[in-house]
Every structure is written in structure tokens, then in C-alpha cells.
Design a protein that fits this description.
With 384 residues, the chain is mostly helical. It is built from 15 helices and 2 strands.
Length: 384
């Protein structure tokens, strides 16, 4: 049993502490610790279901539920009216995957294996999609300054952009099901391919949008179900319910924590909340990189960023309307600068088909700089 599973005890403790009137800082910490194993349980249950449903439906499940824990957290933040926290957590998720996760993967994988190689075509496509996604998020942010006097147009513009992003995400999922990986073309006529190296699974296994659980489908001896179908469904349902309950507790403690610790809501969203919702996924990326499977590691880091920008962010625009809120795809200049910088350097690293530990150290250095910048950024400046 993974060590992270044992942290699930903090989920009921956080709920009890919240109802007992315990200090909000302690409640926030307990909730954060409780969400980590719940997020992993959702991911593991989805992975197990994918074994029973087959690669295509399984890939769709992974593409849909890959960031379920973070989606649930942001929904409760929207309900509480913490829209700045929501936008910051979306930005933080993208930054965390591109700088922290990819950086750690390159450093640890590079130190163990030296220069690591991966498919340039797949990495190039994912990098292009990521640049497109960031540009799509930047356009409404920049044009909003001219539309702020017309709220209806402002909202319709964000909704229109959200629809386009969701369509692009759907097309990327379809492409992952239908496109043949570059390895197939390379193997045509080549009969001396080493048999001990497993051929990558076509479609979703190497897809950017389903990269979170790709490692499970490319093990040399296959991946066998450790849970029954019924157990997988029960665990998925219970973990989702638990995530919803603990997320509400976490979000409820945000404002007291901000006041008592002097942190900004913006910093919590950029750095803390994304780490809580994605830490299990982060570990997967690092583990496969240390096994010299950089294609899978890139699929996790780039794929999660794509899912946040092309699916989660636009879906939240429409979910916010159900709670009487207006979540616009409008990010401030500081967020946009950080997003563009992280995306460009990650794209440059991915395009040459090679990586090393120094590139990873560069990414980690940039992440620390970004974290310091947002830590010292005054709340009044960060507000849209």
C-alpha cells in the first residue's frame, strides 16, 4: 500500500477539527494533508477502471478525471466567492507542472541516466498545444481592459473563448485515439528492434491529455488490475465524496489563514493549493523519469498543464454561473508573464528531443523565483 494512503486519516480529523472550532490554520493544514491521499485514490481508481473499460474509454476517463481533485477544490472556492483564488490556482497548476514537476523529473532522471531522449514529434505537438492554450488565455485578459465597461460583452467573450478551448481539448482527445505514434513509422521495415523494449501503446498512453496514468499502460509485463471493478467504482465514489467534503473545509479556512499569517489569497492559490491537489501526480512524473521513461514524464507534466488550460479553466467559467458568480478568463499581468515564461522555456526544452539535469535545475530555479515574486506581491496589486 502506498505511503500516501495512510495520510487519509487526516481527512476525517480535519472535518472534526473544523466543526470543533479548532484554529483555522490547523484546520487548513489538516485539510491539505487529507486531500493528498484522496487525490491519489481518485487517480488510482480511475486507472483501475481504465483496465476494465479498455484503452479508449479508459483514456477518456483519464482525460476527464485527471484533475478531478483540483476541479472540486476550485468549485467550492467559486461557491465561496473566492474567484481570485480560483484563477491563481489555475495559474499555479500550470506553473507547477511546467517548472516544479518537469524540473524535478529532469534533475533526478538526468542525474541517474545522463542525457535522456524522447520522441520530438510528440513533445513538439504537446508544446505547440500548450503555447496555443496560454495565448488563448492571454487574449481575453488583454482585451478585457477595453470591455470592462460592458459587463455583458465581457462575460460573453470569456464564454466564447471557453467554448473554443473545450472544442480544442475534445479534438486533442480524438487525435490521441486516432493518430499513430512516431514509433510505428520508425518500425516499418525495421525487423531488428530490441524486443525487451516495449512498444508504446498507441493513442492515449502517450497523449498529452491522458498522460497522468500513461505509466500504467507501458510497463514491460503489462499492468494487471489490483482492485475489482466493483472496488474501483466504490473507491472512486468515496474518494470523490471525501474530496468534496475536505475541499469545503479547506476553502472555509482560507480567509482566516490569510488574515492570521499575513499571506495573500493569491499566494495560496499560486503555490499551496496546486501542490495539494497535484502532489500524487507529481510523484508519478518523477518516478517514471528516474526509470528513464522521459516520454511518460513529459506526458504527465505537459498533459496536466494542457488539461488545466484547455478543459478545467473553461469548464469553470460555466460552472461559476450555476453559483451566481462570474469567473472570467482574465488573468493579471503578473500571471501572464509567469505563464508565458514557463511555457516558452518548457517548449524549448521539449523541442530538441533531449533533456539533462542542468535543464531541470534551470526550471526549478525559475519556479523558486516565481514563488518569491508572488510571495512578496501585495494583495492590492494582484487584484484584477
Amino acid at each position: 500500500m502506498p505511503v500516501l494512503y495512510y495520510l487519509v486519516i487526516f481527512a476525517p480529523i480535519a472535518f472534526i477539527a473544523d466543526n470543533a472550532g479548532v484554529d483555522p490554520i490547523i484546520v487548513f493544514i489538516l485539510s491539505a494533508l487529507g486531500l493528498i491521499p484522496l487525490a491519489k485514490l481518485i487517480g488510482d481508481a480511475t486507472e483501475e477502471l481504465a483496465i476494465y473499460t479498455g484503452p479508449k474509454l479508459g483514456g477518456l476517463l483519464n482525460a476527464t478525471l485527471g484533475n478531478a481533485a483540483e476541479l472540486i477544490i476550485t468549485i467550492f472556492a467559486i461557491q465561496a466567492g473566492l474567484l481570485e483564488l480560483v484563477r491563481a490556482s489555475l495559474t499555479g497548476s500550470i506553473l507547477g507542472n511546467l517548472l516544479l514537476v518537469l524540473g524535478l523529473s529532469l534533475v533526478l532522471g538526468g542525474r541517474k541516466h545522463g542525457t535522456q531522449v524522447f520522441d520530438k514529434r510528440t513533445a513538439g505537438l504537446n508544446a505547440t498545444l500548450l503555447l496555443l492554450a496560454v495565448v488563448a488565455l492571454a487574449i481575453p485578459s488583454l482585451f478585457d481592459r477595453a470591455l470592462v465597461e460592458t459587463p455583458n460583452s465581457e462575460l460573453l467573450f470569456s464564454e466564447g473563448v471557453a467554448v473554443v478551448l473545450i472544442v480544442l481539448y475534445a479534438l486533442s482527445v480524438i487525435y490521441s485515439f486516432t493518430a499513430k505514434p512516431a514509433h510505428d513509422a520508425a518500425q516499418v521495415g525495421a525487423k531488428n528492434v530490441p524486443q525487451e523494449v516495449p512498444a508504446p501503446v498507441a493513442g492515449p498512453a502517450l497523449s498529452a491529455v491522458t498522460g497522468e496514468h500513461a505509466a500504467a499502460h507501458t510497463e514491460p509485463h503489462g499492468h494487471h488490475a489490483k482492485w475489482s471493478l466493483r472496488t474501483s467504482i466504490i473507491i472512486l465514489v468515496l474518494a470523490t465524496i471525501g474530496t468534496a467534503v475536505v475541499s469545503e473545509t479547506l476553502v472555509g479556512a482560507v480567509e482566516p489563514v490569510v488574515q492570521q499569517l499575513g499571506l495573500t489569497e493569491f499566494f495560496l492559490g499560486i503555490i499551496i493549493i496546486p501542490l495539494v491537489g497535484n502532489i500524487a501526480e507529481h510523484l508519478v512524473a518523477v518516478q517514471v523519469a528516474m526509470k528513464n521513461k522521459m516520454e511518460l514524464s513529459l506526458a504527465v507534466s505537459l498533459g496536466s498543464s494542457l488539461q488545466i488550460s484547455l478543459f478545467v479553466a473553461p469548464v469553470l467559467v460555466f460552472i461559476s454561473l450555476l453559483f451566481g458568480q462570474r469567473l472570467l478568463l482574465v488573468f493579471n499581468d503578473f500571471e501572464l508573464i509567469a505563464l508565458f515564461g514557463a511555457t516558452l522555456i518548457a517548449a524549448f526544452i521539449a523541442l530538441d528531443g533531449e533533456s539533462n539535469w542542468l535543464e531541470g535545475a534551470i526550471l526549478l530555479g525559475i519556479y523558486l523565483i516565481v514563488a518569491l515574486a508572488f510571495f512578496f506581491l501585495p494583495a492590492t496589486v494582484a487584484i484584477h
